[in-house]
Design the sequence.
């Protein structure tokens, strides 16, 4: 049971929403009351703003709070819910249900741990989703309109539309600015599949509204979102089919990582079709019939729901960017330079609307750079950031820095130090032996170029390697860092030790032997 | 059955090599030279197995297991079939653009199983064709015709088309759906594809294709062994069966101060180390029992064995250390590693004989066995029949260990030397 603050309990004490109103239950209303209060009145603009931020997702909120903390006069415009995808339809709800799904997977696997499988495992899907909404409500407090106002941010709700190079209109008001930041994020790509729209489909924007677990679910796309939710829904009782138009899942990740994930998904019972393209969808009664094409020829599957997770497209429409002189592309987003400046020198962009790496932490990091550069003549570069990422499947797959191929493209010689999780004591005691830590260094040096971790807690483990890369700490220094025993992160130390052993050249060994023989 | 410890190493190897060679006397259609993929009833022909058959005939002649005339006659029948069979984009042709479909009907020679027009399998066929063209060097009508046919088959292949508009070679093509989605990513058995593709006098791969492929290589330190990583053991064997990589280096190996021969040696050690650590507790694994590779398996099923859930695979590319691994041992690949690490392989072969006598009695090794899955004897589940690829790699690699015959022959093949040089290899016997 999530520890729920008294404040929310008190607020909800007299709320007796009948179950039929799910998913817009009391928790959802509590959240909405904070991230888009129905009675909210926009402030009256008073003079020119130092910074107007469009979009109150993670990047926009970070930028607005950071600028306000530094004494800037800041406006933040949001057309829907503060918190953006992360809180409402992204990381927060998905990780909440992934946790519950993992619990059920562990229950079924209890014997492997010397435990007993419960006689009757009943999955209460409504409870799973209620816990998710409760967590959203709790985490939504930090991003509430009221808190932002208290922090000195003028919060406006409404559609933002540029009226010129230095003005933006919102809900009948005209805001003038010295600098502006566009952080409108991205939305799910609509798959151009005949019949899909007519049959209806889910994306991350509405999958968390489900009130019943679909008996048969087709996931289109084997990227992070597709793989995470395919595994979660499978573990929550759905028969999941996943179709990926590529020879492997997570195409940007290392082949071995993707292969391990493929095995893990298959073990969960997911029906996997790689190199398979969805070509058409039609409805037959309550079922959706999906036609696919693979190297082996055409075939069809029958499902109750379809979840499309094929990527995201930037939100650039409706802002009248032309009036502001901001160049953009509907596929790649707003064009920015390495300082996150758009073609209008007064306007910056950050986050999903302009970055390839569409992650919450990338949005926040880029927003910080944009604020410094916009307000304080900063010269911080986007390219200087070290941005890790993680796909939260079981096992998780996390990466930071360069892939081997990227390094070799730059003619950097690479050597990879690999530690298998089955050689890590804590992974063995935890029954979590599948995976590895791979650390790529510039050959002949200990300089870390990048790393991939596949482990149940890879997202936590990768941060140590991000720190090392960001701080210029090499494997030689890492080998001197005492890691607590037993931990799974010890794998990183073991990789550093493997590096240290390569420095024991025959000459070194010869000299050591001579020394010891005296 | 001979007592394994009473036999000398050479006697032991001779017994197993000859047993493997027997496959190509039993499983080849004398009318067209096509060799069966497996010894199972109604198995189709595999063009790669034909390539192994063509390479094994010279071994058979030199070992006195067949006459030169018989070998030449079989070879010419095979080459005539491939030269005269139908090339078109129709789904029931034998090949297209000079390449051939992976699986063919043993009698008609037409495509079966909707198989792909396969670059690697055509290349392995071609390796056999070129082995024959070098070995049969006499000025007799039959041997002259062998050389002419071999050259014509090689020159007809359109390697440029096989790039599918890209820089690197694609894996295959189907008349129903075009080029397969995937290319060659990471180190694999495709080195020989590039060598022969680059050497083509008619439609060669571009100069930058090999370099573009090697950009996907990963040099890894695993279990304290540094090597060019590839998981399945066969990857470290197939190009090496025909090309002697000892002492010759491309740009990547110069950078790493190694070569592909040494790399296969280290890969062998990694295989053994993995089996010794045996992280998933499979029965049978140990320092003398290893060989995780692409091979036949017990079939897709999940069983609880000794309280542990085991998920078994069918034919699959098993690999170390990342898997997949279901406890199935590919002893053919292990024994075929003989030239690289005889100090590991010979004890492994004797261990097989002692530990699994029911499986090694007739000295012909199955594609896989799995002691974890209970069967009739200590070897547990054993793959039914025999696979031509396994028998072929055993014959060639044991011969390379014993006499270096195939390597010596292929050093004389101008296309091998030319392709290696064009791929950037220097040193050693190329000097």
Sequence:
């Amino acid at each position: 049971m999530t520890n729920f603050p008294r404040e929310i309990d008190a607020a909800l004490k007299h709320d007796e929403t009948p179950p039929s109103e799910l998913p817009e239950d009391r928790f959802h209303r509590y959240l909405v009351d904070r991230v888009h209060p129905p009675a909210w009145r926009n402030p009256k603009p008073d003079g020119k703003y130092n910074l107007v931020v469009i979009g109150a997702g993670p990047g926009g909120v970070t930028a607005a709070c950071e600028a306000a903390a530094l004494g800037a006069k800041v406006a933040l415009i949001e057309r829907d819910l503060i918190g953006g995808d992360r809180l409402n339809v992204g990381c927060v709800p998905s990780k909440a249900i992934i946790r519950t799904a993992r619990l059920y997977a562990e229950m079924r696997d209890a014997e492997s741990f010397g435990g007993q499988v419960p006689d009757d495992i009943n999955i209460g899907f409504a409870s799973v989703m209620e816990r998710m909404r409760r967590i959203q409500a709790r985490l939504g407090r930090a991003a509430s309109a009221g808190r932002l106002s208290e922090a000195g941010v003028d919060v406006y709700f409404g559609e933002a539309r540029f009226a010129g190079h230095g003005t933006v209109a919102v809900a009948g008001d005209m805001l003038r600015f010295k600098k502006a930041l566009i952080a409108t994020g991205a939305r799910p790509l609509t798959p151009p599949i005949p019949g899909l729209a007519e049959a209806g489909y889910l994306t991350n924007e509405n999958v968390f509204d489900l009130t019943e677990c679909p008996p048969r679910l087709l996931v289109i796309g084997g990227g992070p979102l597709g793989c995470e939710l395919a595994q979660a829904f499978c573990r929550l009782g759905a028969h999941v089919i996943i179709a990926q138009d590529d020879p492997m899942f997570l195409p940007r990740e290392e082949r071995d990582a993707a292969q391990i994930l493929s095995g893990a998904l298959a073990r969960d019972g997911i029906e996997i079709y790689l190199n398979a393209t969805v070509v058409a969808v039609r409805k037959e009664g309550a079922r959706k019939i999906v036609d696919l094409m693979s190297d082996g020829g055409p075939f069809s599957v029958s499902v109750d729901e379809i979840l499309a997770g094929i990527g995201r497209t930037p939100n650039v429409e409706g802002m009248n960017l032309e009036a502001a002189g901001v160049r953009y592309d509907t596929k790649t987003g707003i064009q920015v330079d390495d300082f996150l400046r758009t073609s209008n020198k007064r306007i910056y962009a950050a986050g999903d609307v302009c970055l390839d790496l569409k992650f919450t932490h990338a949005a926040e990091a880029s927003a910080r750079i944009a604020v410094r550069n916009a307000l304080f003549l900063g010269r911080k570069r986007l390219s200087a950031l070290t941005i890790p990422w993680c796909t939260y499947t079981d096992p998780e797959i996390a990466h930071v820095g360069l892939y081997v191929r990227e390094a070799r493209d730059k003619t950097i010689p690479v050597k990879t130090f690999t530690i298998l999780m089955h050689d890590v004591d804590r992974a063995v005691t935890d029954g979590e032996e599948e995976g590895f830590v791979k650390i790529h260094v510039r050959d002949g040096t200990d300089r870390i170029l990048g790393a991939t971790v596949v482990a149940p807690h890879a997202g936590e483990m990768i941060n140590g390697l991000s720190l090392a890369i960001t701080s210029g700490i090499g494997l030689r220094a890492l080998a001197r860092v005492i890691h607590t025993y037993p931990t799974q992160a010890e794998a990183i130390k073991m990789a550093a030790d493997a590096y240290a052993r390569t420095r024991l050249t025959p000459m070194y060994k010869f000299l050591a032997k001579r020394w010891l023989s005296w | 059955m001979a007592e394994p410890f009473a036999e000398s190493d050479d006697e032991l190897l001779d017994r197993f090599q000859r047993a493997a060679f027997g496959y190509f006397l039993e499983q080849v259609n004398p009318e067209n030279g096509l060799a069966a993929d497996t010894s199972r009833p109604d198995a189709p022909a595999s063009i790669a197995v034909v390539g192994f058959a063509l390479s094994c005939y010279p071994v058979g002649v030199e070992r006195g297991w067949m006459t030169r005339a018989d070998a030449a006659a079989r070879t010419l029948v095979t080459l005539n079939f491939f030269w005269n069979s139908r090339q078109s984009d129709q789904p029931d042709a034998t090949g297209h653009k000079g390449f051939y479909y992976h699986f063919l009907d043993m009698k008609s020679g037409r495509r079966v199983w909707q198989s792909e027009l396969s670059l690697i399998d055509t290349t392995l066929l071609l390796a056999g064709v070129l082995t024959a063209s070098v070995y049969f060097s006499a000025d007799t009508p039959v041997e002259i015709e062998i050389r002419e046919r071999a050259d014509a088959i090689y020159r007809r292949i359109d390697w440029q088309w096989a790039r599918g508009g890209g820089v690197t070679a694609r894996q295959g093509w189907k008349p129903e759906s075009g080029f397969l989605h995937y290319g060659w990513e990471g180190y694999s058995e495709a080195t020989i594809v590039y060598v022969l593709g680059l050497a083509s006098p008619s439609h060669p791969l571009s100069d930058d294709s090999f370099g573009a492929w090697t950009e996907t290589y990963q040099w890894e330190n695993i279990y304290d062994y540094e090597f060019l990583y590839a998981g399945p053991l066969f990857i470290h064997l197939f190009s090496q069966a025909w090309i002697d990589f000892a002492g010759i280096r491309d740009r990547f190996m110069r950078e790493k101060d190694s070569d592909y021969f040494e790399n296969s040696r280290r890969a062998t050690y990694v295989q053994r180390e993995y089996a010794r650590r045996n992280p998933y507790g499979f029965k049978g694994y140990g320092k003398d029992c290893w060989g995780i590779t692409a091979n036949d398996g017990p079939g897709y099923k999940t069983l609880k064995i000794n309280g542990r859930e085991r998920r078994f695979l069918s034919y699959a590319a098993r690999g170390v250390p990342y898997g997949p691994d279901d406890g199935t041992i590919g002893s053919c690949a292990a024994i075929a590693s003989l030239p690289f690490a005889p100090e590991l392989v010979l004890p492994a072969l004797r261990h097989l004989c002692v530990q699994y006598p029911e499986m090694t009695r007739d000295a012909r090794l199955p594609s896989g066995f799995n002691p974890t899955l209970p069967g009739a004897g200590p070897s547990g589940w054993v793959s039914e029949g025999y696979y031509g690829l396994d028998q072929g790699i055993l014959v060639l690699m044991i011969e390379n260990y014993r006499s270096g015959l195939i390597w010596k022959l292929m050093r004389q093949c101008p296309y091998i030397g030319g392709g290696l040089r064009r791929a950037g290899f220097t040193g050693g016997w190329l000097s």
User: Anything to note?
Assistant: The first helix of chain A runs from residue 6 to 12. Chain A has a mean pLDDT of 93. Residues 478 and 496 of chain A are 6 Å apart (CA to CA).
